[in-house]
Amino acid sequence: MSTLVVKYGGSVRDEGRYLEEDIAHFAGTGQRLVVVHGGGPEISRHLARLGLPAQFVAGQRVTDAETLDVVEMVLAGRVGKRIVRALQARGVRAVGISGEDAMLLRTVPFDTQESLGFVGQVERVDSRILEVLLAAGYLPVVAPLGVDANGQVRNINADVAAGAMSAALCADAFVLATDVVGVMESATSLHAVPELSVAQALDWIASGIISGGMVPKVMAAVAAVQQGARAAYIVDGRQAGILDAVMTHGRVGTRITGGEDRGGHDG
Question: How many domains does the chain have?
């Protein structure tokens, strides 16, 4: 039985029907699935309605106390429950939780000066709540929030949160479903690079080939593979059958591995 962790990007939410159908299909075959979702665009829309600024530093949302209230409401409420309802409509026993629950994601401040406010990085994953739900036949849908040692809620980059859970579960595949087909070798490339080793991925980041919003995705994939996941995939979540392609032959999007396991999945 394979374990699959899917990061459901906020950028594919409006076109996520195919991804939800894929998730429902694999859940029906008895595979162990965990979905981790983002919600950045919706958070920004709610902040705008409240007249609050959306500020970013190096791709991270500055999260003061007022922003944190909105982040928690949107991620653990609106977005997570919307995905749960969509999966339940397809016959999936989905359960919405956040990284706060059962201390799933223990965090520390993202930077020592806390210049980003209540933004956290994952210090430890306690995956027991996921294992309990999976063993009982439920599909966890996880909002990327965590708590620190003092019980303070912290906002976590969804790619990073999903990667950390993938590593803790030793996932067969960590799939980052986004709105691009994978990692490109240049701005003029028409096709994604099919495979990168961890070493190649880090080299491409250092040289600037991988840049912008792709950097945190690739770094999350690298960390997951280095810490326990078998492979990570950056794929276009708007395509039909994307998870089937990942789990049957692994030839879709960009696959990131430790450099030794070059084969596909057979499960």
Answer: 1
